[in-house]
Design goal:
Blueprint: E1 16-18, E2 21-23, E3 29-33, H1 40-53, E4 57-59, H2 77-89, E5 93-98, H3 101-107, E6 113-116, H4 124-132, E7 137-140, H5 147-159, E8 165-169, H6 186-194, E9 199-201, H7 203-207, H8 213-222, E10 227-231, H9 249-265, H10 279-309, H11 319-335, H12 340-377
Parallel strand pairs: 3-4, 3-10, 4-5, 5-6, 6-7, 7-8, 8-9, 9-10
Antiparallel strand pairs: 1-2
Helix pairs in contact: 1-2, 1-9, 4-5, 8-9, 10-12, 11-12
The protein binds phosphoenolpyruvate and manganese (II) ion.
Length: 379
């Protein structure tokens, strides 16, 4: 690819610096928000979600390149004001898509990053115009573009004078109909091998369905992505566009809470919870931990029941084993700076409920057995 004169690999990777945020550095940058800007309140709520999650950039389309001319086309300038205001309220940066020269001119000095969408990846005149601006650009991969075509599109922007290009893999069209597009995660590695530009991943437009977003996001980080662009809406059921692929605020925050360990496993960093230790953020974190505790207790109970099914009724309670567990967990608690008394008081209760459920399940089994024997005997 000799024509990748500027996009081709240099000795060092490029980072894009925007108002104190570095894209392409060690930190994974989370960007989120609705597909389309719909109202001021929708944008304020979205900004709050992104901030709570530790996201840095608010997205929202105000000029929507829709497949059908009858679909919602975006709020235009009015929407741009909602996006910019909501981002400011939460001290986030913002990004929106441009579709032509007129929309570029309208937004270029208002937003922190411009997006050129998949459908415009080879709109060469738009690429050249965007290349004349000083605003960083997220360049999405075209619906059916090869990696080479995608990088050559980036080359247009670079060649026109704007070095701040962020590549975004957003799924390509394949023969597979179960997802909206097929997320090409190998493209992250290939694009990074061929070029020095940062690469982010948009799992939302790739999957087209919200149930896959969390796993694809984690996979993207593992694959080397420098950031994620994810759609979230305060009420996806009411979204004017892309509702089925938009995460609820809770899902978006939950996903963000899980990204740190994935980032760490590939020597990157993601810090959950952007507002620092405010009461609200801390409470959200506590709520999430509490949910996990209850889910784990439910898992424990199920296993205990299975154990009970293998024992005779008179052997359901095993005091020695209970003492052993308490001893072991008290030691662990002490190591983790927790008062060992917490284990000593909590666990007898957990055991008690476990034994009760074992007895119940055993009695139910005995009853089934008895009635089966009775039926047999009466024959
Ligand atoms: C978008 O991000 O809103 C969008 C339209 O994405 P794409 O260009 O990837 O389809
Ligand atoms: Mn969308």
């Amino acid at each position: 690819m000799n024509d990748l004169r500027l996009a081709g690999l240099k000795t060092t990777r490029s980072t894009i610096e925007v108002k104190g945020i570095t894209i392409g550095g060690k930190e994974i940058i989370l960007m989120g928000g609705p597909c389309a800007v719909e109202s001021s309140i929708q944008m304020s709520q979205s900004a709050e979600t992104v901030k709570q999650a530790g996201g840095k950039i608010l997205r929202g389309g105000v000029f929507k390149p829709r497949t059908s001319p009858y679909s919602f086309q975006g709020l235009g300038l009015e929407g741009l004001n909602y996006l910019v205001k909501a981002a400011k309220e939460q001290e986030l940066l913002c990004v929106t898509e441009v579709i032509d020269a007129a929309s570029l001119e309208l937004v270029v000095d208002e937003v922190d990053i411009i997006q050129i969408g998949a459908r415009n990846m080879q709109n060469f005149e738009l690429l050249k115009l965007a290349g004349k601006s000083k605003t960083p650009i997220i360049l999405k991969r075209g619906l059916a573009a090869t990696i080479e075509e995608w990088l050559l599109a980036a080359e247009y922007i670079l060649e026109a004078g704007n070095p701040q290009v962020i590549l975004c893999e957003r799924g390509i069209r394949t023969f597979e109909p179960s997802t909206r597009n097929t997320l090409d995660l190998s493209a992250v590695g290939v694009a990074k091998e061929l070029s020095h530009l940062p690469v982010i991943v948009d799992p939302s437009h790739a999957a087209g369905r919200r149930d896959l977003i969390a796993s694809l996001s984690k996979a993207a980080i593992a694959a080397g992505a420098d950031g994620l662009l994810i759609e979230t809406h305060p009420n996806p059921a009411e979204a004017v566009s892309d509702g089925p692929q938009s995460l609820t605020p809770e899902q978006f925050i939950q996903l963000a809470a899980e990204l740190g360990v994935v980032a760490e496993s590939v020597k990157r960093v993601f810090t959950f919870g952007g507002i620092g230790d405010t009461l609200e953020v801390l409470r959200t974190q506590i709520d999430r931990v509490d949910q996990t505790i209850i889910k784990l207790l439910a898992d424990r109970m199920q296993i205990v029941q299975k154990v009970g099914d293998q024992k005779r009724l008179d052997r359901v309670k095993d005091t020695n084993r209970q003492n052993e567990i308490i001893q072991r967990l008290s030691n662990l608690a002490a190591e983790l700076q927790l008062p060992p008394d917490l284990v000593k008081r909590l666990y007898p209760m957990i055991f008690e409920f476990g034994v009760q459920s074992q007895i119940k399940s055993k009695l139910a089994q005995d009853q089934v057995l008895e009635s089966a024997l009775y039926t047999l005997g009466s024959k």
